[in-house]
Amino acid sequence: MNFASLVRHDDQSSPDPIVDRLTADDDLFVRMDVVLGLPVVNQTLWRFPATVYVDTITALGQKLRHGRLSRLVARHRGPGRAYWRYTPEAGAVEVQHDPVPAGEEGSWGRAQADAPLDFENGPAWRLVVARAAADDSVLVSLIISHVIADGGTGAVAVIEAIHGLDYVPGAEPGLISDVRDAADLLWTAGRTAVRIWRASRSTPPASPVRVTGRPTPGTDVSDAETAPNVTVLIPQADYTAAATSRGGTDNSLFAALMVGVLERSGRVSPGDVVPVSLPVSSRTLDDRRANASSGATAFVEVDPHRYEDLTAVRTACKDAYGRLAANSGAVAQRAVVLQALSRSITRRLASNVTTPLCLASNVGQAPDEFATLGTGTPGELSIRAITATGDPARLRDRKGGISGWLAINDDHVMFSVSSLDPVRIPDAACLRTLVDDELTAWGISGKLWGA
């Protein structure tokens, strides 16, 4: 999606104050953090040439502190949705004066991802700028709690800041507003629960997707890294040629690559059908939501024939988007009901919740403003989400697999993969081997971000 097209450049001031409340999607990420102990953090890394001015980027950071990212979760007594409290304290901007040692650029980026965030007290996002000792290049890390922004919200916020566009903060709710919202939440959740119950009685259960193996609950993962990531920058011409020569598209090759990495990890085997989660932005013009995305699911068979012909994978992705409305509706309904439940009830209901087996998020063409951060020079990008838990066993018990991101920027394709399976993919070295071997099978290669 072209997030730049979602930014309105005219005056959007309104005489009527708006109370921005958390949506059911926002609340899901709150519960991921508070109830499950699995906070999700979005991170984008840039590497710019030495000619870029650090002050240009820090000035942008200060603008972000007064834009749509400058919000924290606020609660009120009694039932009802939490609301957004707008404050510059929601964000932190820092310049690291010590240069990053040569060869440690990737480690520096990961260390930034592990910095603490707090979506209630702040900061809920951090922008850090440093220089690399090797060539004086400028390194930038932007981490954002998924509670306050998904990838689309973050991109729109950056574009608005670059263009100097004002974001009108939401107002704090009064007693009457809270009472009305509580009544609406309970009424909506009740009606939705009835619809879910009726649908469950009339719809036959879906056929289970066969997956070879799952993490063993008792496996010791104390030495595993938490959600290690590998980001490879591939020449766009090489990537596109690999896709089109097999009758595929950039997106279907992306899905096939993710399934291939999963297979090489030993998690799935030939003949398995892998549910590949394909996030789709539902963001619209003037959208004030923190999280605005839906999820399609492509059922991709682990078939060796895909290395010669991507037709089946391409068809699976196309079918997934065709089913998007129905699937998204069911997921959205469950989220609405969950928002009305207490944390203690949620904790009991979440005992069997799993993280994605295979998630493939295609960003598409990175907007120029986002890629350059207003400097006029595109930076080398690394985009990823980190499940920021200090206990890898929590990831193991949620039975996740891998998650990945794809973006096009400056004649390169950014291919980023993170592990959600500390049993089979315990560290970045293991993941790098899996990714390199899979890319080699397609006849493509690239360089690691930061190298």
Explain this structure to me?
The chain has helices spanning about 25-35, 55-65, 105-115, 150-160, 175-200, 235-245, 250-265, 310-320, 325-340, 345-350, 370, 390-395, 430-440, and strands at about 40-50, 70-75, 85, 90-95, 125-130, 140-145, 230-235, 275-280, 295-300, 360-365, 380-385, 400-410, 410-420, 445-450. The protein has about 450 residues and is α+β, with helices and mostly antiparallel strands. The chain has 2 domains: about 5-190, Chloramphenicol Acetyltransferase (2-Layer Sandwich); about 225-385 and about 395-450, 2-Layer Sandwich (Chloramphenicol Acetyltransferase). Strand 5 (about 125-130) and strand 6 form a beta hairpin. The longest helix has 28 residues, at about 175-200. It starts with about 25 loop residues before the first helix and ends with a strand. The model has no long low-confidence stretch (mean pLDDT about 90). This is Diacylglycerol O-acyltransferase.
Question: Main traits of this protein?
Answer:
Chloramphenicol Acetyltransferase; five-stranded mixed sheet; 451 residues; seven-stranded mixed sheet; globular; alpha+beta
SSE layout and pairing:
Layout: H1 24-34, E1 40-48, H2 54-64, E2 71-74, E3 83-86, E4 91-95, H3 105-113, E5 125-131, E6 138-145, H4 151-162, H5 175-202, E7 229-235, H6 236-244, H7 250-264, E8 273-281, E9 293-301, H8 311-322, H9 324-339, H10 343-349, E10 358-365, H11 368-372, E11 380-387, H12 392-397, E12 402-409, E13 412-419, H13 428-441, E14 447-448
Parallel strand pairs: 4-5, 8-10, 10-12
Antiparallel strand pairs: 1-6, 1-11, 2-3, 5-6, 7-13, 7-14, 8-9, 12-13
Helix pairs in contact: 1-9, 2-4, 5-9, 7-13
